[in-house]
Amino acid sequence: MVAGRREDPVWLRPEQAPTGRPGELSRAQITAAAVAVADADGLDAVTMRRVAAALGTGAASLYRYVLSREDVLDLMTDAVAAGYELQPPTADWRRDLLDVARQQRALLRRHPWLAQLTLVRPALGPHGMDLLEHVVSCLAPVPASGSAKLEAFAVLTALVAAHVQNEVALPAAERRKQLVSFAHAVAAGRHPHLAALAAQAAPGAADPESAFDDLVLRVLGGLLGA
Amino acid sequence: MVAGRREDPVWLRPEQAPTGRPGELSRAQITAAAVAVADADGLDAVTMRRVAAALGTGAASLYRYVLSREDVLDLMTDAVAAGYELQPPTADWRRDLLDVARQQRALLRRHPWLAQLTLVRPALGPHGMDLLEHVVSCLAPVPASGSAKLEAFAVLTALVAAHVQNEVALPAAERRKQLVSFAHAVAAGRHPHLAALAAQAAPGAADPESAFDDLVLRVLGGLLGA
DNA sequence: CCCCTTCGAGTACGGTGTTCGCGAGCGAGG
DNA sequence: CCTCGCTCGCGAACACCGTACTCGAAGGGG
Questions:
Q1: Dihedral over Cα of A146, B110, B31, B57: its sign
Q2: Own/partner long-range contacts of A45-53 (Cβ < 8 Å, ≥24 apart)
Q3: Is residue A113 over pLDDT 60?
């Protein structure tokens, strides 16, 4: 029960050795520095050297606190998850989960790199577990199997992350490529239904907040029964 | 109208110059080699040097056919999308879209790296456009706005990709970490609802095929009306 | 046939994550 | 109080990576 096996998640490994010279840094500091770098210059800018420089130390020093760069990414994910303000469940689980989704969207918009991380490297640290506990507790009155509830959590998370990624976290060049491809396909004439869709035009794009709410509620309804 | 601007997607740029010495390779060959490497050793193994080596050439040569490594990834995505066997729409759009989702799942399982790519770098090449056209045509009788249909396509794609990623495309070490974290959270006792869920146990996990079908149909129902 | 253009690819550059080795520093045991 | 054993900090090094430059070589249209 001493914990700390190399293949365990970061959060279960002891941060410091119990004996010897104590460290000058902490995982919390490393995590904060990494988040700051990612916020400023994106996820690719989160290199060991860069994070270390932000802390005024050398890259190799970080490995005293962390096993790999992926550990840093996991820590970043959970650090942001600490930002949820979980309200006690009400009688209306749809409202409760919509609130969670809205908070997730807000966090993802504040940290655009998180969308990619959530999608490609789903990590559940302590704060992620708290979030999951909260969601499951909100769903207590819903007559669905436990696995269905876990699935709902996973789907909701992925849905919001993908949504925000399309909203803000995709490089402008990528979005431009999509548009050009679409326009080209329409112009080529071999995609009549797409052409019809394009002709129908986007009707001013209703306010994105309520569109998001609507999307989440629809998916939730489908997942967990009307 | 000559096409070929540097910021256009790969598929719109001419593959070869119209004059001068013709190339010995082709984008198709490069794409096939890259897919083979990814199938064998994962997406991270798809390096310019490795793909070039598989073709018996040098890394720098690939840049005669491709602007960057990201171009190669886009080509890989669309190459797999060529594998869809799109049936003519029936009267039952739910069945039609479920068929698409099943095919997508099968393709993703055959090429596990694609899940990550789809989630993090959604690319719509010619075959992707054909797929989108097909989905939209299946949805013709559905009374929903065009943007709602596009949204449904995006959600469906992301949903299936995330699902397959959790099924097969996540490294065993990652899945293990999730389990350990979960068990640890339950054992710590501060997550009663999670503990209840764990106690309730997974009831033999019903056959994953029908679970997938069920998930897709539920989400579709929520998205596009009962 | 020749020349212009493109192709092939060796070499090089600046970067990455990670390991090694070693001196420095701290805390505990005698 | 001193010393021993440990850990920490971190410069240097390794094996790669994506990509730019720069040639000589090679093929096809005039």
A1: positive
A2: A46/A72, A46/A73, A46/A76, A46/A113, A48/A72
A3: yes
Residue B55 has pLDDT above 70, yes or no: yes
CA of residue B84 relative to chain centroid, distance? 12
Q: What's this model's pTM, rounded to 2 decimal places?
A: 0.94
Q: What is the model's pLDDT at position A38?
A: 98
pLDDT in tens, B174-198: 999 999 999 999 999 999 999 999 8
Single-letter amino acid code for the residue at A91:
A
The C1' atom of C25 and the CA atom of A223 lie apart, in whole Å, by: 58
**CA gyration radius, chain B:** 21
pLDDT at A64 over 60: yes
- Is the minimum distance from the CB of A16 to strand D below 7 Å? yes
State the SS3 of chain A: CCCCCCCCCHHHCCCCCCCCCCCCCCHHHHHHHHHHHHHHHCHHHCCHHHHHHHCCCCHHHHHHCCCCHHHHHHHHHHHHHCCCCCCCCCCCHHHHHHHHHHHHHHHHHHCCHHHHHHHHCCCCCHHHHHHHHHHHHHCCCCCCCHHHHHHHHHHHHHHHHHHHHHHHHCCHHHHHHHHHHHHHHHHHCCCHHHHHHHHHCCCCCCCHHHHHHHHHHHHHHHHHCC
Give yes or no for CB of B37 within 7 Å of strand D: no
In this predicted structure, what is the pLDDT of residue B23? 84
Distance CA A64, CA A34 (A): 16
pLDDT per residue over A81-94, tens digit each? 999 999 999 999 99
Q: Least CB-CB distance to A223: which of B191, B193, B219?
A: B219
Inter-chain touch A133–B8, beta carbons under 8 Å: no
Burial B26-63 (b: 16+ CB within 10 A, else e): ebebbbbbbbebbeeeebeebebebbbebbebeeeebe
pLDDT, average across residues A108-132:
97
In chain B, which residue's Cα lies nearest the Cα of A169?
Answer: B120
Nearest CA in chain A to B170: A121
Say how many residues make up chain B: 226
Q: Has residue B1 got a pLDDT over 50? A: no
Q: Answer yes or no: is B13 CB < 7 A from strand D.
A: no
d(CA A24, C1' D7) / Å: 11
Query: Which residue type, as a one-letter code, is found at position A38?
Result: A
